Amino acid sequence: MKQVKIQIPSLVENIRVVESFIDNSKDTFHIDDDIYGNIMVAVTEAVNNAIRHGNKFDKDKNVLLSLQVESDRVRFEIEDEGTGFDYENLLDPTAPENIENPGGRGIFLIRHLADEVEFNKDGRHVLLTFLLSSSAADAEERHSTINGAEAPAAR
After folding, report:
1. Do 121 and 136 contact (CB within 8 A), yes or no?
2. Alpha-carbon distance 46 to 71, whole Å?
3. What is the pLDDT of residues 98-123, one digit of tens each?
4. Structural domain spans, the chain
């Protein structure tokens, strides 16, 4: 398993840093185009939520973003320093009474774009899992073997 971490201050303009992080990860770990768009939208939305709602734009609070690549999946962890939120009882943005609301769709989008979504630490930590296609998993195995790293665990 390979892991990369970054920490950013809670400034909206740092979303560009996150986008670059995802772009670099796509190239480094050979993430296929078919899931790249889902990753970009879901991860940037989660980081945006951490900056806006978690850390309340406090530049002295950070958002931690980490990436873990395994043979068959890629996981992004996003953690803020806020107080958390009730992720179990969110308004349904598709309900008629909410359809006109300008916000409230972020978690809905994240849950539909990632293969698995897990909230921890009262909602301050989110784990997004995206399953890799077999060709990406094969590329990761080749990458590990070429670089002399341990062979990935059997599937």
Report:
1. no
2. 24
3. 888 878 889 999 999 999 999 999 99
4. 2-146
CA–CA separation, 141 and 153 (whole Å): 10
The sign of the dihedral angle between the CA atoms of 112, 19, 140, 142 is positive
pLDDT tens per residue, range 39-90: 999 999 999 999 999 999 999 999 999 999 999 999 999 999 999 999 888 8
Answer whether 11's CB lies under 8 Å from 59's CB: yes
pTM listed for this prediction: 0.83
How far apart, in whole angstroms, are the C-alpha atoms of residue 40 and residue 130? Answer: 11
**pLDDT greater than 50 at residue 139:** no
**In terms of Cα–Cα distance, which of 27, 66, 69 is closest to 47?**
66
Q: 2-146: what fold? A: Heat Shock Protein 90 (3.30.565)
Strand order in the sheet with 125-131: 2-9, 62-69, 73-79, 125-131, 116-120
> What does the DSSP assignment read for 81-127?
SS----TTS---TTSTTTTT-SS--HHHHHHHHSSEEEEEGGGTEEE
